């Protein structure tokens, strides 16, 4: 796998890395060690600023990398809500893209159905309330 390059989308890079690591049947305990030599620029800076023990855990490394590039559940929520279907994209591709954004936004593996529902309801409530510039 090529090194991470300046201007490259860190999310897509990490998704590609994860798919390749699974394809190659690499144990997740090795992923951090295999990813670090591929990091450059801001991504490498984020890794070097991490606590050494935490940097050995792929999920922690990924979290720090996404944070360095200002990517959070809120980023995914905004992308989910503003998604349009490009002309060249099939319905299946659009569906899968939305599904992926949804999973990264609400993180269903970390939250109950009730918590997810509550977050969506609160978001909608904020959308329908009248705007008050004095608040």
UniProtKB/TrEMBL annotation:
SUPFAM superfamilies: Retrovirus capsid dimerization domain-like. Residues 77-130 form the SCAN box domain. InterPro entries: SCAN_dom, SCAN_sf. PANTHER family: RIBONUCLEASE H (PTHR46888:SF1), ZINC KNUCKLE DOMAINCONTAINING PROTEIN-RELATED (PTHR46888). This is SCAN box domain-containing protein. It comes from Cirrhinus mrigala (Mrigala).
